[in-house]
Design a protein that fits this description.
There is one protein chain. The protein has one domain. By secondary structure, it is mainly alpha-helical. Helix 1 (4-14) crosses helix 5, helix 4 (44-56) crosses helix 5 and helix 4 crosses helix 6. The termini are far apart. The chain has six helices and no strands. The radius of gyration is 14 Å and the shape is globular.
């Protein structure tokens, strides 16, 4: 199990969208068009994006155990998704990118 310091370091590196950017993204139709809904109306990634916004607006000292667990989940998801590699063409408009953005990472953002 990773320490809070390890999770924090990876979170800072991988979750590269600001709360405002993520909110704007989650309000788009494209955001809602990707991900597993498991029979629900909202995808797992979209729900995660909402939680990420809350976490990013929380001081590190005030993060709960549930926040840290979610941060670890986000880090794991983003790392696995990036390891798959993106599409050979049109990464900008790909479900791969859109899914990552739901989890707070825009692979086109430097």
């Amino acid at each position: 199990m990773k320490s809070h310091d390890e999770i924090w370091s990876e979170w800072q590196e991988l979750v590269n969208m600001t709360p405002a950017e993520l909110e704007k993204w989650l309000d788009t139709d494209r955001s809602g068009s990707v991900g597993d809904t498991r029979g629900q109306g909202e995808s797992t990634g979209h729900k995660s994006g909402q939680r990420i916004i809350e976490i990013k607006r929380t001081k590190k000292a005030d993060l709960s155990d549930e926040d840290w667990a979610h941060m670890g989940k986000v880090v794991g998801y983003v790392k696995r998704h990036l390891a798959q590699g993106g599409p050979a063409k049109d990464t900008e408009h790909s479900d791969w990118r859109y899914s990552l953005m739901n989890w707070g990472h825009d692979p086109l953002k430097s």
